[in-house]
Structure formats: structure tokens, C-alpha cells
What does this fold into?
Amino acid sequence: MTRTRFRISYVFDISQTEGKELPTLMVDELRGSVDSYPLLVEAMERISPVPVERKKLRGGPKGYYEQGVGRIVLKEGMDEPQTLKTLIHEIAHARLHNSLGDPKNDLPLLQQREVEAESIAYTVLNRFGIDTSDYSFGYIAGWSSDRSVPELRASLETIREASRDLIDELEETVQELSCERSQALACQFGGKGFLEMHLRDEGIDYSVYDREYHLLDGGVIETGANQSLSDVFSAIASQDIFAGEPRFLLDHDRFLERLEQVREESREPSLKEQLRQPVPEAPKRSRSTKKEKTSSKTEPAPEK
It folds into this structure.
């Protein structure tokens, strides 16, 4: 006869243990700041198909799309990267996963909806230079663990098309907002370089820089009555040097500060500045101690 026996063992919570930090699948929340946050968040709210609200949410949810009411709710107090990621995630739900009360419009399974929304959020924000992989990869892995390969492939086309549409709309809306808010703008084109523009009495002053902030081209474009900063930006941005490069709108003042910093670091001092520099003192010789002179006595050799 076989008998099953059990023995007592000890189980500890991770908080009761010591040692190196254990790896985690994903971070709880994205931290940090985004230079173009005001422009991006307003542009996202403009292209959202439903109103966006902010509330104090308890627990884990960072936000949600409420289909019956037709609104997106975001958790208050999140850092800028997390707010942008959650907002795009919920906009994807509102665009793709809205049955509009029609029972014939079957929604995908919950796992598929979450994988699609988070993949779109990662793709769109990556285009704008915001890396959410620390959060998104773990999120997607958790929701896709039980899905088959054909199901995942079916979502790829949806993710690709929705991401492309959102990126196009966001780039256009951010550009419009930037021109509306100020009379100047700065933009980075992938790894190729930068474009800076500002209004002058004579027209629009523009400067094109490579990625090392070296001036490549520039001038003043006389504008007509119906020609705006946005129109000139589009014309210059369509040139071959920037073709196909992703656009990242930058804070204009911060860009000018960085440009001046690079110039100062690379600038060689003038002759006058060199003359003003203090002459380094010659190293002082250390004082050597005088050894007392001692008379040396020659001891007699031993007698043989």
C-alpha cells in the first residue's frame, strides 16, 4: 500500500527576503518628463473621438474608456510619459473597440483588445521619441500569453494601420498647434538634423542644422498674405534631406539654449581671451635638507 506523506516547509514573502533585486516583467508606472508634453497631450485630446477627463482613481487602473458614456478617464497625478501612453491606449480602444450599441458589431476578445491598444500606444509614442518599452512589453506579454499565432497575426494589420493613422494625425495636429501658439518652432528630423524657424518683419527666418548642430542652410523667406509659418515649415520639411525622417517637435527656447551651449563648447578662444588667461606658475623647487659633513676615518687594516 502506498502512502502519501507531506513535510513542513517554510514560505516567505519577497518583502521578508534580502539580496539583489529580482528582475520584474514590467515597471508599475513610467516616470520622467517629455519636452513636447503640452503640445502632444493637447493634440491627442483634439484627435480623440470622445472627451477626455481626469479623475482620482484608486488602485491599479491608469485610465479607461467608458463606451456607454462615450468618454476617456485618466488618472490624475501621473508622470508625463505615463499620461501620454495611457491616453493613446484609450484612444485606440475608442477608435477600434467601440460597438456603438450594435450587437452585430462583435468586439474582439479582451486579450486581443488589450494587445492591440498597448501595441499601438508603444508604436505611436516611439515615433515621437518616447520609449515606453519598460511598461508596454510586459503589458503585452501578459495579455498575449494565451493567444495563438494566427490570432496574433490577425492583430498585426490592425495595429499597423491604426498606428499609421494616429501618427499622421498627431504630426499634423502638433504642427498646427505649435504654429498657433507661437511665432517660432524647432523640429528634429530623426537622426538627420534640425530645423528652426521664427517670424521677422521681413518674413520667416529659417535655419537648417545637421545632427551636430552645424549650420547647413538658412535665410529669410518673404511670406505672402495667405502664407503661414505652417505652410513654410511643410515646404522646407518636404526637401530631400528630411524625406522619410520622423519629426519630433522641440521646445523652441530649449533648442536655442542647446544650440548656444554647443557653440560655446566648440568655439576656440580668441587671442584676447587667451591673453587674459592666467599664466600657470612655475612649480616650486622643494628645499633639500643639508647633510652635515662628517669626517671619514680610515680604519687600519688588520695585521697579518
Summary: The chain has two domains: 26-100+107-180, 183-270. Residues 26-100+107-180 form one domain.
